[in-house]
Design a protein that fits this description.
The chain has 459 residues and is mainly β. The chain has three domains: 124 residues, no CATH class; 61 residues, no CATH class; 242 residues, no CATH class. A nine-stranded antiparallel sheet has the order 26-19-20-21-22-31-30-29-28, with no helix packed on it. It has an eight-stranded antiparallel sheet with strand order 1-7-8-9-10-15-14-13, with helices on one face. A hairpin with a 2-residue loop joins strand 23 and strand 24. Belongs to the PHAF1 family. One of its GO terms (cellular component) is trans-Golgi network. One of its GO terms (biological process) is Golgi to plasma membrane protein transport. Pfam families: PHAF1 (PF03676).
C-alpha cells in the first residue's frame, strides 16, 4: 500500500511580508483518497535557474535542475515553486512504514527515487521519452530527443560513443546513465526512457553540507559539514551559529513555554524561585539542515532535529536531519524503536509528565508554534482577535489510547492552524529522557523529532 501527496498551485500562500508559514503547509485533502494532500511551498531562489521542458543530461550527476544527492526537501521546495510548469506533484510512500521505506516523486514525465536512508537523498532520476512528452533532452548542448525528434539506439551511440552490449539488447548502459529501448529494428530501436544514477553504485554526490549530526543529551551536538562543529548548549552563541552555519532561513520569537512548564521548568527558574523571563528567546530555523536552535540572550539553550517522515504533520517543513544519538556503543536514529531509547538512555521521564488519562494538545517548538517572526515588534498589550490569539494547551477528560505508556505525553498536531480537514494523520507521543525528548509517530513508530535541552549540572 502506498500513500500519495498531491500538490496543486491554488494553495500557494504567502503573508503580506512574503514570509513562508510552514504551519499552513497541510491543507484540505482531495476526496479521492485519505492519503492525498494538497500542499504548498515557499519559493526557492534556485527555482528559476533551469527550465523543466529542457533537461540537460549529466551522466552520474543529474538531469536538468535535478541533481543526484539533493535532499527530498530541497527537490520538493523547487518543484512546488513551478506554478505553470508542474501543475501536479505526486509523492508516494508506504504509510504503515513511512520511516523505513523509499519515497518516489512524480513530476510529469520525471520520476525521482529517494531510497530509505538516514539522509533522504535523490539516488535515481527516471524520465519517460516520447511524442506525448513536452520536453527536450540535451547532452553537452546538443539535442538528443524532443517531441519532433525521437532518440534511437544509433543516436545514443553517436552522442556517447560505444558501450558494452549486443544488438537488440533492451538497454544501453554507460557510467551514470542507462537508456531503455523499445524494439523497432536494430539501430532504429527507440529510446523510451532514460535513467540517471551514480557512477559508482551507492555513492551519491554530496550536495548539502550537513553529513551527520551527533546529538548529545543535555549537552548539545556535533555537526559534520563536513568538518566538525561543536554546538554546546549554554555556551555556543548566536555569533557562532552565523560563522559556522550562516544566517538562518527564518527566525521566530518564542512566546509559548508550555513544553518547558511540563518537561523541565526547574532549569528556567531563577534563584528566587520565579520563572525565568523567556521574552528574549528566539528560534533560529535552518530548514535545509532539519534543525532549530533556541537562542536566549544570545546563547543557544536548546536544539531540535527533524526526521521529515512522510505522512506526519511536519513533513516537508524541514529537510531530514541525519541525526544519531550514540549510547552504549550503539547508534540510535529515527528508525530506532522507542524501546531502544528506553533501554540505552539514562533517566526516566520527568515527574512533571501528565497522568496517562490526560490528552494534551501542545504546539510544536518549530516555526509552526505560536510566536512572532523575528524583526516584527511584539505588542502584548493590544487586544487580539480569535484568529490572532495564541492557542492554549488544553486537557480533556477523554482517555489516551490504551497503548500509550504512562510516561508519554500525547501530542496532537492536527489541531494546529492549517491542518483542519486533513485526514490520515495520527497523533504522536512525547517521551522524555535525561537531557532529551523524543517525538514518536503513532502510526509508523518512527521518531519524528528529537529535542536536546540544556542540562545545567551546576544548577
Amino acid at each position: 500500500m502506498t500513500a500519495a501527496l498531491t500538490t496543486t498551485r491554488r494553495y500557494h500562500q504567502l503573508d503580506p511580508n512574503n514570509n513562508y508559514h510552514p504551519r499552513l503547509d497541510h491543507l484540505p485533502p482531495t476526496r479521492t483518497s485519505p492519503h492525498h494532500f494538497h500542499h504548498h511551498s515557499s519559493v526557492s531562489p534556485l527555482a528559476h535557474m533551469d527550465k523543466l521542458d529542457t533537461l540537460e543530461l549529466s551522466p552520474g550527476k543529474g538531469l536538468g535542475l535535478f541533481r543526484l544527492g539533493d535532499t527530498l526537501w530541497h527537490v520538493l521546495d523547487i518543484l512546488r515553486s513551478r506554478k505553470t510548469e508542474v501543475p501536479k506533484i505526486e509523492v508516494s510512500w508506504d504509510p504503515d512504514n513511512a520511516h523505513k521505506t523509499a519515497v518516489t516523486v512524480h513530476a510529469g514525465p520525471v520520476a525521482l527515487l529517494f531510497p530509505a536512508s538516514r539522509e533522504q537523498r535523490l539516488a535515481l532520476i527516471h524520465v519517460v521519452l516520447g511524442e506525448q512528452q513536452h520536453l527536450t533532452l540535451t547532452y553537452q548542448g546538443q539535442v538528443l530527443a524532443s517531441r519532433s525528434h525521437q532518440l534511437t539506439r544509433a543516436g545514443v551511440s553517436r552522442a556517447l560513443g560505444p558501450t558494452f552490449g549486443t544488438t537488440g539488447a533492451a538497454r544501453l548502459s554507460y557510467p551514470g546513465v542507462g537508456f531503455e529501448l523499445a524494439p523497432a529494428g536494430g539501430r532504429e530501436d527507440l529510446v523510451v526512457a532514460v535513467n540517471v544514477s551514480p557512477r559508482e553504485e551507492g555513492v551519491l554526490p554530496t550536495i548539502e553540507p550537513l553529513a551527520q549530526c551527533v546529538l548529545k543529551p543535555g549537552r548539545g551536538a556535533t555537526l559534520y559539514i563536513p568538518h566538525a562543529v561543536e554546538i554546546v548548549l549554554g555556551e555556543t552563541t548566536s555569533q557562532d551559529l552565523l560563522v559556522d552555519l550562516g544566517p538562518p532561513l527564518r527566525t521566530y520569537w518564542k512566546e509559548d513555554d508550555r513544553l518547558d512548564r511540563v518537561w523541565g521548568q526547574e532549569r528556567d527558574a531563577d534563584a528566587n524561585g520565579q520563572e525565568a523571563d523567556t521574552s528574549n528567546s528566539c528560534f533560529w530555523n535552518y530548514f535545509q539542515h532539519g534543525l532549530d536552535f533556541l537562542v536566549t540572550d544570545g546563547v543557544v539553550t536548546k536544539l531540535i532535529a527533524y526526521s521529515n517522515i512522510p505522512g506526519t504533520p511536519q513533513f516537508q517543513q524541514y529537510a531530514r536531519c541525519p541525526w544519531v544519538v550514540n549510547s552504549d556503543a550503539i547508534e540510535l536514529d529515527f528508525t530506532s524503536p522507542l524501546s531502544s531509547f528506553r533501554t540505552h538512555l539514562s533517566g526516566a521521564t520527568p515527574a512533571a509528565a501528565p497522568p496517562p488519562s490526560s490528552h494534551l494538545t501542545v504546539e510544536s517548538e518549530g516555526p509552526s508554534r505560536t510566536g512572532t517572526p523575528a524583526g516584527k515588534k511584539k505588542n502584548k498589550s493590544r487586544s487580539q482577535t480569535p484568529s490572532e490569539a495564541p492557542t492554549v494547551a488544553t486537557t480533556t477528560t477523554r482517555a489516551a489510547p490504551a497503548d500509550v505508556p504512562a510516561d508519554a505525553m500525547v501530542l496532537d498536531r492536527t489541531v494546529e492552524g492549517g491542518l483542519d480537514g486533513v485526514v490520515g494523520m495520527g497523533s504522536s507521543q512525547l517521551v522524555g529522557f535525561d537531557g532529551l525528548i523524543v517525538e514518536v509517530d503513532d502510526r509508523s513508530g518512527g521518531i519524528s523529532s528529537v529535542q536536546v535541552w540544556w542540562r545545567d549540572d551546576d544548577a
